Prior knowledge:
It comes from Bailinhaonella thermotolerans. This protein has 565 residues and is of the alpha/beta class.
Amino acid sequence: MALIPVMQAVVDVIRTEGVDIVYGCPGAAILPLYHAMEADGRVRHLIVRHEEGATHMADGWARTTGNVGVAIGTSGPAGTNMITGLYTAHADSIPIICVTGQAATDKLHQEAFQAVDIVEIAKPVTKWAVQVKEAAQAPWIFREAFRLARSGRPGPVLIDLPIDVQRQLIEWDSSIDAPLPVTRVEPHPPRVEKALDMLLSAERPLILAGGGVILGEAWDELRQVAEYLNIPVQVTLMGKGSFPERHPLYAGMTGIQTSQRWGNAVFLESDLVLALGSRFGDRHTGALDVYREGRRFIHVDVEPTQLGKVFGPDLGVVSDTGLFLKALLAAARSREAGPRPAAWPERVSSLRRELPRRDDFADVPIKAPRVFREINEFYGPETYFVTAIGLYQIWSGQFQETHLPRHYQVCGQAGPLGWEIPAAIGVKTARPDAEVVGVVGDYSFQFLVEELAVAAQYDIPFVLVMLNNEYLGLIRQAELPYDMKYEVDIHYDEYGTDNVKIMEAYGCTGRRVRDPEEIRDALEWARKEANRTSRPVLVEVMIEREGNAAMGAAIDAVKEFEPVS
């Protein structure tokens, strides 16, 4: 084999793993890799303004494509800046690889400039964190990183590259190399049969589709099973989009925040829950005694250690969600089980009619639910949405309709503020022809606002719909039981922060809306403006300052309160 620069081999691996774009920021300790990318010319690179932004861009790209996203930084603070992105990907099971430069191997013990043990720092928030110590290992470590990021419960990997290792030559022939195989976990047949027994014996069964259904690309199998057995389907926040929300078997969302009244009521009336790829996160379950009382649970997950982590299920099944659903459907057909009685799905439909939340408010200042009514009516099912954390995420989960998998991207578990702008860039670069919309809050907008410069530099258009209450709304609502409003007001003059002017400073555009009747026109303008300029466009909706999202201490359809009227 010919001797080639080791970083050329690394670029070959990245490209042949199906990655056509990476996000990062060059620095002295990572320049050999950048030189190899320049020489290769087949992997596009976007230069970011902050390494955390690079990780969230790779995250958004990965959530949209199902492939492994790649972010690159240099040594020292570049790596530590990536930790939030690694944590976010780890918490939501998103496959990304972060590559960091590092000081020379013989300087690591001498506290050299920007030499930090990023491997040890990253271990708690990665599936694997590794430093390449021998140049000949580099392509194999990258192959294993891609395999591991995709395998089982997906997640992030960090690879640290000392500068002296990057500069070496190795023997490598990319023409005889290929990605390592990923094995899907098949279910144990007796457990599939037991799960079917439990479903058929239940009077009011419910399927709960978690993020594992989307990660396992099992949405078609989910629909087939639900329709064949006539079982209602709920989704978790991370499973949103795995089942069409206008389907007659859709049963809403349960939880203490991102939920519907009727979804909570449906769950409380169920007697068995088939949970697919769900972690039973605390924002979904609320109080476990209420959540578990009166119903049995079947928990299916590709990761064995997820079973029993929150509570012991009545039946646990280790399996890829798609393979489990295929096996379940085959077992049901072999028994000629057929559809279950219609009484339970009809009850679900009646609860949906009886327990809606209002979204037709005409008030000024604007009430948040009205914003999502306009979003639902204006944008089509093919639109991609991203949103982060705060009251606007909760309202989004409660009111926003989602019809297709991978079209609703949300940083569900870690919840880092600022995620939306870089994630939207990742989504749009993955799907250049799609309409991409970020639903943001006025505070979160400012956390990684500098990444607007990336979108402007590379002509990446998307629309940001901002719900601006000039408050830290979620924290203010959390403070209500304490009878306090401490350090939540971020309004300091006529505008507080003039977000439209911020957009203009980055070469983008924006419009402020104060009347609900103006929202539709503003969304239409934003769509045309984004297409005209090929840059991000902001629709800033000024909502009521002290509007509350319906939340409760436990899933209780009776005790939860409505938005302030």
